[in-house]
């Protein structure tokens, strides 16, 4: 971890208010706000009216004091000014609340639309992005980004802008009612105040950040030590652990002290600037009263205006830091939107329309996930309408890559993949994927009911259609035997169901989708032999009405295939029917003999 140099040396950041990525985040947010131009305008009007009312309060107070001044020899109480004072006090709150109410819809709607845009964008990105990304960290980026929008809105609209409006109003009143020096002294004080706040806040942020890092590290150290309590005891290393924990705490203590003392320095500097500015202004006002060209009311007015102006400025350091943090969080979230999808529809992509089982062809396909490591070399195979082709080979031979390429999770480097002669890159991804049903090796189910999981194949399907799909996958009898039937919740990732039951749900879900091409990606590899035989019969029956690609590990499951393709290291080394391949005494025959021996061995052990 980088250690920051202390003091105002080279490591101390320049008082750079906002950097390029901050403005980029604000620019990305603008279109979502502009969708509610009317509300934004009303909120701004309410903001200005609230501040006008706020600044008018000291003016009413001045009039009351002047009216009560014995020199004016008034006998009546200034009732109208007292009423005006009360109305202005109430108006300040009223317009602030109206501003909050009107703007709430803008903020919350922007958050909702941005979160939805990011969510949809993440689903549009290709598989590679999701395999390389930590989902937990990504969801935290979205969460922090949307929270950052809320913070930015709150602090900008409810703290920074009102203060700026108030500064302009106060300076205008001081210049208009008194001499220009009152306005100049106020503005000079504010400029120095803001500059000092930004410089010290930037400088002390390093200590704050370091303190948080060290706090997390000390905490992780303690938890790790306590989790491994037995190991610590076995080796008698209690004092060693305490020493290591204390080393982290010592560093945290040092950073914490610097963070606290730098905060004290910030607060003292702010108070000194405000004190000096206020003293000079009060001296000029008191001199004016003494010389007779200002009244006592004027003195009270100037004092009240200054107090009103300086109260919100006390929080400027915190607000500035929060806004910077919000902008950084938003930038991280908007950066997710700038990640481009690798697999995109062409501008002239057209819909794939199928009425029956199509022909699927791989023509001299080359593919690599990473250019340094090719996966497929010149792979050519054809699955004729209503036929079944099985692909076998050792782990890593490139079998499952075929299903990912046909589904267009990735684009190939050379060659082509066609359905009924249409290159899949010319088709819309949505229509292509609607035509293909995949039953994967590892069926992932949502933590919901069995009905929901089957209906996921076509969410708008009727209940009868869902039950018909369950019957076709031979899982209807099992579901009927459950106390809650189709409303049984399957548990997280479907853990309450056995492997065979999960595979049947996957088959039912895929059938409900009504695809014309079926892909079984090692769909029976995790099952016991009884479940495997049953599901194998279902796959064989389904294959008769679909164009089917079976990726298999166990050869006994694909003996009925119309063609068997044997792959090794991304190349096709043999092809033919089961009997033909056995007669060739090649790689397939060797795999068959090996698996038969294993099967005999397992059966004898049972």
Task: Describe, in plain words, how this protein is organized in 3D.
The protein folds into four domains: 19-177 and 318-342, ABC transporter type 1, transmembrane domain (ABC transporter transmembrane region fold); 179-293; 346-435 and 516-606, Rossmann fold (3-Layer(aba) Sandwich), CATH 3.40.50; 442-514, Rossmann fold (3-Layer(aba) Sandwich), CATH 3.40.50. Helices cover 63% and strands 9% of the residues. The protein is built from 19 helices and ten strands. Helix 3 (79-124) runs antiparallel to helix 5. It is elongated. Mean pLDDT is 81; it is low at 1-15.
Low-pLDDT runs: 1-15
The H-and-E topology, N to C, reads as: HHHHHHHHHHEEEHEEHEHHHHEHEEEHH
Strand order, sheet with most strands = 6-7-8-3-9-10
Rounded average pLDDT: 81
Into how many domains do the coordinates divide?
4
> Structural class per helix/strand content?
alpha/beta
What is the CATH C-level name of the largest domain? Mainly Alpha
What is the C-alpha radius of gyration, as a whole number of Å?
37 Å
Beta-strand fraction estimate = 5-15%
Tally of DSSP helical segments:
19
Q: Which range best describes the helical content: under 10%, 10-25%, 25-40%, 40-55%, 55-70% or over 70%?
A: 55-70%
Q: Give me the CATH fold name of the largest domain.
A: ABC transporter transmembrane region fold
Annotated CATH homologous superfamily of the largest domain: ABC transporter type 1, transmembrane domain
What summary fits the major beta sheet? 6 strands, mixed
Identify the CATH architecture of the largest domain.
Up-down Bundle
- The count of strands amounts to 10
**What shape does the CA trace take?**
elongated
Distance between the termini: 57 Å
